[in-house]
Design goal:
Rossmann fold; 9-stranded mixed beta sheet; about 250 residues; alpha/beta; binds adenosine monophosphate; two-stranded antiparallel sheet; 11 strands
């Protein structure tokens, strides 16, 4: 079984983002970037499936600037086999990403696509679903467990009030939730080995996709600063305080 894993280069989740002075977006100048955490989980799941001999080849795809090669290399060091960089300096919206991925699926013919459930930069949570719709493939979103049963994949999903398991016939799209697995760190020898793995460089035009944005960002603002708290001496003082502000 061949798996395609789209991996997005995003601002490192441990870095505090700064909003540009003109409110037009987040300032990415000299900011540490990393693989989107949900994409790391997707790569890890594909690698575990390969270790269980369910999967034979893992192809990683990133759509973004030249530096997104580094993101692909991380995935190759985790256990991916080869990569495709679809290079563009434009911010590509989920629909255009899904269209490019569909074109790659048409040529690569994977049996499974594992995406993250969302990219932590724009929190869209759309690409996997849109791709499944464009391909007319079944989808298992927010996966917290994936098992193979015969020629089907059972995907466990965390829903309100419990766990739902859906059975998908292949080919299919899965999107990963946080509790699916804990991604491995790439070891130094594997980072060295990954340097020799193949990354094909393409452009959106090679897939006939127009990535011109359809949405206009009106404004980006910092969250409101939290006001300092106040310590109270005991429970009675707490109750009095809550009453005084009308909270109880
Ligand atoms: P989103 O719908 O933007 O929240 O992204 C969900 C998932 O789609 C991500 O975790 C990736 O697996 C995939 N994805 C989104 N944008 C890109 C991109 N530019 N390059 C590669 N994969 C992407």
């Amino acid at each position: 079984m061949k798996v395609l894993v789209p991996v997005k280069r995003v601002i490192d989740p441990n870095v505090r983002p700064r909003v540009k002075a003109d409110g037009s977006g987040v300032d990415l100048a000299n900011i540490k970037m990393a693989m989107n955490p949900f994409c790391e989980i997707a790569v890890e799941e594909a690698v575990r499936m390969k270790e269980k001999s369910i999967v034979t080849e893992i192809v990683l795809v990133s759509i973004g600037p030249a530096q997104a090669q580094e993101t692909i290399r991380i995935g190759l060091a985790m256990g991916g086999d080869r990569g495709i960089l679809v290079q563009t300096d434009m911010a590509v919206e989920p629909l255009a990403v899904a269209k490019i991925l569909k074109a790659i699926v048409d040529s690569e013919k994977p049996d499974l696509v594992i995406t993250g459930k969302q990219a932590i930069d724009d929190d869209s949570n759309q690409t996997g679903q849109m791709l499944a719709a464009l391909l007319d493939w079944p989808q298992g979103t927010f996966a917290s467990g994936v098992t193979k049963e015969g020629d089907k994949l059972n995907v466990t999903r965390e829903v309100d009030g419990g766990l739902q398991t859906v059975s998908l016939s292949l080919p299919a799209v899965i999107t990963t939730d946080l509790r699916l697995n804990e991604p491995r760190f790439a070891s130094l020898p594997n980072i060295m080995k990954a340097k020799k793995k193949l990354i094909d460089v393409k452009t959106p035009a090679d897939y006939g996709v127009d990535v011109t944005p359809r949405l206009q960002v009106v404004k980006v603002a910092e969250p409101k600063k939290r006001e300092a708290g106040e310590k109270v001496a005991d429970v009675d003082a707490l109750i009095a305080k809550l009453k005084s502000v009308g909270a109880i």
